[in-house]
Design goal:
Elements lengths: L1 H9 L3 H7 L14 H13 L2 H9 L3 H8 L4 E5 L7 E2 L17 E2 L25 H14 L6 H16 L7 E3 L5 H11 L4 E10 L1 H6 L7 H27 L13 E6 L4 H14 L5 E6 L4 E2 L14 H11 L2 E2 L9 E3 L5 E3 L3 E3 L6 H5 L8 E3 H12 L3 E9 L8 E5 L2 E8 L4 E7 L7 H11 L3 E9 L17 E6 L7 E5 L4 E5 L8 E9 L2 H8 L3 H30 L4 E7 L2 E7 H18 L5 E9 L4 H18 L6 E4 L20 E3 H16 L4 H15 L3 H14 L1 H10 L12 H23 L1
Parallel strand pairs: 18-19, 25-26
Antiparallel strand pairs: 1-4, 2-3, 5-6, 5-7, 5-8, 7-9, 10-11, 12-13, 14-17, 14-18, 15-16, 16-17, 20-21, 22-24, 22-25, 23-24, 26-27
Helix pairs in contact: 1-4, 1-7, 1-8, 2-3, 5-8, 6-7, 7-8, 8-17, 10-14, 17-18, 18-20, 20-24, 21-22, 21-24
């Protein structure tokens, strides 16, 4: 009964979509109901059954609705529900911001990965378009396909994804309320609140995520394992949430956090000990590469008295409970020295019981192109990384299998006709994943059904996630094969160019080698700025927090999916690898100048969609044959430099090819305090370097300008300026050409402000460094 009540609560406001789309109600309701409630009743009656209509009319869902709605901030002006867009949920936590003068509103539309990123840019309120008729059309199409699902838990899980598609950009409350919470965020919180009279908040924090991703020893298959570990963490967090919910007898919708690395469960009792047992098992299984901190709020909150927002700080019961749980977070397990260990092919030390011989793993030759010796040992985590990393290319479906207590999953990789299937198994959770990938044209549902047939005897539950498809992810014909099956979608943003391999029998594809991409390679990473601050400030507003975190994940994944990967596939000749994108992180590598251009474009686009954040990044440039794991570590260091130096106005980019300079009047030459650039400066300097090569500007002149900049850094300022004036007088034609190619960035001396000339000469060394790299390519 809990799942039925949660689903009714989750859909209690679906009538708002119908009402705003101009649909007229038919259902008759008596008592404290509104017109949109009558439309919700119509929807439940059409696409579910009488049991759900009865529950809705009883009104037990209202306690969850009222509790979730207690975070709303009321205003005097009544907004127009059918024409008011969604407001940036972070707006009022940022000081001195006037929403009427900024692009901080989102067009009301459905989520479509085929839409251009510009569709989802934040904009002025009068520029946001409203598409309720389109949303309604997609809603009924998806609801019609979900009608075959009978199992209440499966139906609830599937509607979670239906609502993500149609309600992510729909404001929940407009009339006399600030419209800063999406209908999805509000409803997602209301559902678990409806089934507990009293609640506690259980918080789980995954530690060591970056260390886990970058723990790639050895050069063999390093790119694949980096990519695999990143995506595997998404799968692991999903499996962990599912397993905890199963052990506690809850729905997965009781996890109200969308933040990577963090779970927040709404629970009815003190269940921390049960959860900690699970977490310790996963820690041991990962050989303590991952650890977990957990806590549960001390006091129970009566849902009927729950207050999320109040002018009086002491009345905010949800905030106090969450702060209490976060403050008391403690590591649940203690690492111990593992006995009976061995070293695998990649140099990792693992317990012998977690080692596989290459020859015993099905499909190992396909995973590694036959490069790993048959007798080599591979640790379980590295094997999973290989399988996942290899399977992310043209990934179509991810099938999650929750196994029965007397069954276990397998590990391996199989070629089945035109499809390839990677299979991994997380032993302490008793959950496995099938990763199905194939060519662009392969969408064979019959094949997918045959995979389900092979697992249905050992499966307790099955979840099918379609990759990067928000509009066509429900397959009602599968319900006849297995009743406890739900449908959703998963975002994946990875790309690796391939090259054709001509064999005696067929044309095969092989991942293009890093060393074949260019003489100089860049590994670039970005990270959203101020995310921690925003999350902290929004943590007291869970519906708004879910709105923001959903937008954040959607932005990073969607932009890379549509803006980068599709473009890369169309051209096919751009030497770029997208390692991963999700949460607020992005990592790519390839030909160094292409990487720099791409990161600059992406950072600008991300900020256009999420103006509440900026993006900082680091790029490490290296010659081929350099270990990619070390390159990643250095790029991470440079990202830290950029984050430290950002000035609050926007993100910056740092690199090992950028020279130090100062913008501080008091530090004209000594103790230079910056070696990062703004994104626009980096892109501009690269353009200057390319124009200089195209126009055959003498290298000798540029290197002399570089040396003058070095003289300024060494505090020889008068001498540097005289040398600069003399150089330009002797090379008047060249100086004029350089000015033209650099949009007058290099200015004359004397004649312009001395301070401006000094700063530009310091920075111009970056142009010369880029010019040198381009010349060597």
């Amino acid at each position: 009964m809990d799942e039925e009540l949660m689903l009714v609560t989750f859909l209690h406001d679906v009538g708002k979509i119908l009402q705003r789309a101009g649909i007229k109600p038919k259902c008759e309701l008596s008592g404290d109901f509104y017109e949109h409630d009558r439309l919700t009743c119509d929807f439940l009656n059409t696409y579910l059954d009488e049991e759900y209509v009865k529950l809705f009319k009883e009104g037990r869902w209202k306690i969850g609705d009222y509790a979730s709605a207690s975070e709303r901030i009321e205003v005097k002006e009544p907004g127009k529900p059918e024409s008011t867009p969604l407001l940036d949920p972070t707006l009022d936590i940022q000081p001195n911001v006037d929403p009427s003068k900024l692009a901080r509103w989102y067009s009301v539309t459905y989520v479509d990965f085929n839409a251009a990123p510009e569709t989802y840019k934040a904009r002025r309120v009068d520029e946001a378009f409203i598409n309720y008729k389109g949303i309604y059309k997609i809603l009924v199409q998806l609801a019609e396909r979900a009608r075959e699902i009978v199992d209440a838990e499966s139906l609830l899980e599937t509607y979670d994804y239906i609502y993500r598609t149609v309600a992510l950009f729909v404001p929940a409350a407009v009339y006399k309320a600030i419209p800063n919470t999406s209908l999805y965020g509000h409803s997602r919180l209301a559902a678990p609140l409806a089934v507990c009279k009293e609640i506690r908040l259980l918080v789980i924090d995954i530690k060591g995520i970056q260390r886990f991703i970058t723990n790639i020893r050895g050069e063999a298959e390093s790119s694949k394992r980096l990519r695999g570990r990143s995506f595997f963490l998404q799968l692991l967090q999903r499996a962990l949430s599912d397993n905890i919910a199963d052990v506690l007898g809850l729905s997965v919708l009781h996890n109200i956090s969308f933040e990577p690395g963090k779970l927040i469960f709404v629970v009815c009792d003190d269940v921390k000990d049960k959860v900690d047992e699970i977490l310790v098992k996963v820690e041991e299984w990962s050989n303590y590469e991952l650890q977990f901190a957990s806590s549960i709020s001390n006091e129970k909150i009566k849902v009927s008295e729950m207050k999320i927002f109040s002018e009086r700080e002491e009345d905010r019961s949800f905030k106090k409970a969450l702060e209490n749980a976060i403050y008391n977070l403690r590591i649940v397990g203690k690492p111990h020295i593992t006995e009976d260990v061995d070293i695998d092919y990649f140099g990792d030390v693992y317990p012998r019981k977690m080692m596989f011989k290459a020859k015993d793993v099905e499909g190992m030759e396909s995973l590694t192109a036959g490069e790993i010796p048959k007798d080599a040992l591979i640790s379980e985590i590295n094997l999973i990384s290989l399988i996942v990393g290899h399977s992310t290319r043209n990934l179509k479906y991810v099938i999650e299998i929750m196994y029965k207590d007397n069954a276990k999953g397998e590990m391996g990789y199989r070629n089945i006709g035109k499809y390839r299937v990677g299979e991994i198994y997380i032993e302490p959770l008793n959950i496995g994943f099938l990763l199905v990938h194939g060519s662009e044209k392969d969408y064979d549902i019959a094949f997918l059904k045959s995979l389900i047939q092979t697992k249905k005897e050992v499966a307790k539950r099955i979840r099918i996630f379609t990759v990067n498809n928000t509009l066509d992810f429900i397959y009602p014909e599968f319900v006849k094969e297995f009743s406890k099956i739900s449908f959703g979608y998963i975002t994946l943003s990875t790309y690796h160019p391939v090259e054709k391999q001509d064999t005696s029998k067929l044309i095969a594809e092989k991942f293009k080698s890093l060393d074949d991409m260019a003489n100089y390679i860049a590994l670039g990473i970005t990270d959203g700025d101020r995310i921690g601050e925003i999350v902290k400030n929004l943590s007291a507003f869970p519906g708004r927090f879910m709105t923001f975190s959903s937008l954040l994940d959607f932005t990073f994944a969607h932009i890379v999916t549509t803006r980068v990967i599709d473009e890369l596939k169309k051209r096919g000749d751009i030497p770029i690898v997208v390692l991963y994108s999700g949460g607020d992180d992005l990592a790519i590598y390839g030909k160094w100048d292409d990487v720099l251009i791409l990161l600059a474009e992406l950072s600008n686009l991300i900020v256009e969609i999420l103006p509440s954040i900026s993006v900082s990044g680091g790029i490490f440039i290296f010659k081929k044959k350099y270990p990619i794991a070390f390159a990643y570590a250095f790029a991470k260091e440079y990202e830290g430099v950029a984050k430290k130096e950002r000035d609050g106005k926007g993100g910056r980019i740092s690199s090992n090819i950028f020279e130090k300079y100062t913008e501080n009047e008091k530090k004209l030459c000594e103790d230079l305090d910056k070696n990062s650039l703004t994104w626009s400066e980096a892109a501009k300097f690269l353009e200057y370097a390319k124009k200089s090569i195209e126009s055959n500007v003498p290298s000798a002149y540029l290197y002399k300008v570089y040396n003058i900049g070095q003289m300024i850094e060494d505090c020889e300022i008068p001498k540097a300026l005289v040398t600069y004036a003399y150089l330009n007088a002797r090379n008047e034609r060249v100086f004029k050409e350089v000015k033209e190619k650099t949009d007058n960035y290099l200015v004359d001396y004397p004649g312009d402000e001395e301070r401006e000339i000094i700063t530009r000469l310091l920075k111009f060394r970056n142009v010369v460094n880029m010019y040198t790299l381009l010349k060597r390519t």
